[in-house]
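#onboarding

Welcome to the new folks! Below is a worked example of what a typical request in this channel looks like: someone posts a single protein sequence, and someone else replies with the predicted structure as tokens. Don't worry about understanding the tokens yet, we'll cover that in week two.

Example request:
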Amino acid sequence: MRSDSLESLLKETADSFLEKVKGQSVEVVSHFDSDGVTSAAIMVQTLKRLDQKFSLRIIKSLTKEFVYSLDKEKTVIFLDLASGNLKSIGEARLKKVFIIDHHEVNPEDIPDNVEIVNPEICEKQKISSSGLTYLFCKKIDERNKEFAKLAVIGMIGDMLDKEMGGLNYGILEEGDIQKRRGLLIYPSTRPINKVLEFSSSPIIPGVTGDPLRVIELLREAGLKPENGRYKNLVDLTEEEMENLVTSIILRNPKKKHKDLIGDLFLVKMFGKLEDAREISAKINACSRAGKPEVALGFCLENAEAKKKAESIHTKYRQQLISGIKYAQSEEKIKGKGYVILNAKDRIKDTMIGTISSILASSPGYEEGTTIIGMSYDGNNKIKISGRNVGKEGRNLKELLSDVMESFDGEVGGHHSAAGCVIDIDDEEEFINKIRKHLEIEVVKIGRENNLPPQISL
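Example response:
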């Protein structure tokens, strides 16, 4: 019988996991983003402490083919994915499956051979998969508290910096994290001119990607270099920070003061205090460059992995700036309340989710607008990423699930951020179907509010 409390569910599932894996080999499968890689780092260190045999695979997306390829006799534990793949997991007849995830799930779809820890089936707390994995591993062995900082990095990577109450607060305390108030542009531990040049969250129109315009903005804000070097962002005085915020808002009026000032989380990695958002960005960059093993090594504080991660991240930031410029200038498919960016091969499939999120936070789009990003993956597939502008808007998980009924594929994600993968041969049909769904929904909303239907074709 499923527990009503997340705390009880974690304990019961951890006990069951320990019992099932005795003398067995465990297959760990984790998502390749910051939340997934930190989850994997916590889990593998826990399994090593148990002297447990295991193998690890970090993947970009979970497909039916991948699920079917898994060894049916092994115990499999999925981290930060699989809640949207329950049908495939049931059909694959795997012996025993554990899932630690926070994405939307239908409890009625859970097969008999699956035990799942997911806040969507009890209490609905806002918590990352890395946070859940940490709590799960702490139930296995209290000494695993030392991995709390990895959970915090995963949380920050999953944009939960404003959800630090409840269980998240306890993890924050155990991670020995320094919390400071400051400007929400990262990394806060680097010189302000470099931070602004590569700022993608938020985009600063006319400034992001242009070092000369950065200097102009800083001069306008009254900030000058000292001994040839600008201050680190975290070291700005309150007055300097307020002046800088004013200059940014003048260039991006969509951003409000409250959006730009908030809590910064500093984590000790490799003996230095680092901005958790920067660490998360480096993990993501490695995975999206096809080097998840470097991302994992970086989480485990391997010195060689650190060097590689920093090199990969520098190149990734440059590619990201190019991708942003392309996305801003490229012609898009537009309708009432939606925008479709079909980047084809001009933006990497591993970046399209990030670019879609950046577009959703950039000036020019109304609250509630749906952004759909599409990008070729080089293997005759197209990665689809949906994002909502602001906190309002359509349920993107439901929207993509409805559209994908016509195609072979599964959907993962949440209300305001979801994604899927389609065959490249289905490109035109997918665009037609998603436009139709989006436009039908506009008609439906109009009728519910006694408004005349508006359809943009």
